[in-house]
Specification:
The protein is mostly beta strands. The protein has one domain: Jelly Rolls (Sandwich), CATH 2.60.120. 13% of the residues lie in helices and 34% in strands. The chain contains three helices and ten strands; from the N terminus they run H-E-E-H-E-E-E-E-E-E-E-H-E. The chain has a six-stranded antiparallel beta sheet. Strand 8 and strand 9 form a beta hairpin. It is globular and about 75 Å long. The termini are far apart.
Length: 191
């Protein structure tokens, strides 16, 4: 009597059936950002300076209905004060709209690294533009704070800045010609 191949064939199919019954794919986490790895930070004047990345409607509309859950950013030097600010869509790509969120996180910052602020409650992505900003107060002689990348994937929306000695937002490239993106990222809640 010859042995049957049927048991061996069944042994091959059982693992395939088991793999086909696994749970749904893990939740998809999305990050809004232009930046690459941190490289450096610009020298800025003392006082209150705001760094921002603007994500226009063309970039937010695919995420309509999702929630902005966190803002992360890189600090190269600890400033006197640090606040996370989120603005809504403004009248143009160089002027933010209404303030949607502001939180002073100064007490939490003791070293230089990636800093994360969880927005409570989160902000719903409506398909309109959104500005992710970090406001810092710099002391005399301590000009560094929010980090930037090397600008390899430069976006004119990734280097926005309101200097302590200015009244209007500008791109960092407009100020000194360098192409960088601030290390500021928005993390959307999992789908």
């Amino acid at each position: 009597m010859k042995p049957s191949a049927l048991p061996y064939i069944l042994l091959l199919f059982v693992p395939l059936l088991w793999l086909g019954c696994k749970e749904d794919d893990p939740a998809v986490v999305t990050t809004l950002n232009y930046d690459g790895p941190n490289v450096t930070a610009p020298q800025l004047p003392p006082g209150t300076n705001l760094f921002a990345a603007y994500f226009p409607p063309s970039e937010t509309q695919p995420y309509t209905g999702r929630t902005l859950e966190k803002v992360t950013f890189y600090l190269t030097q600890v400033p006197l004060a640090t606040r996370v600010v989120v603005f809504g869509e403004g009248p143009d790509d160089r002027t933010p709209g209404p303030e949607l969120y502001r939180k002073d996180i100064t007490a939490r910052i003791s070293n230089t690294e990636w800093i994360e602020d969880r927005l409570i409650p989160g902000i719903e992505i409506t398909g309109e533009g959104i500005w992710l900003a970090v406001e810092v107060e710099l002391a005399d002689g301590e000009p560094f704070s929010v980090g930037c990348d090397a600008g390899r994937n430069y976006s004119p929306n990734g280097d926005l800045l309101l200097l302590s000695n200015a009244t209007q937002w500008a791109g960092f490239r407009d100020i000194n010609g360098e192409r960088v993106n601030w290390n500021i990222r928005g993390v959307l809640a999992a789908e």
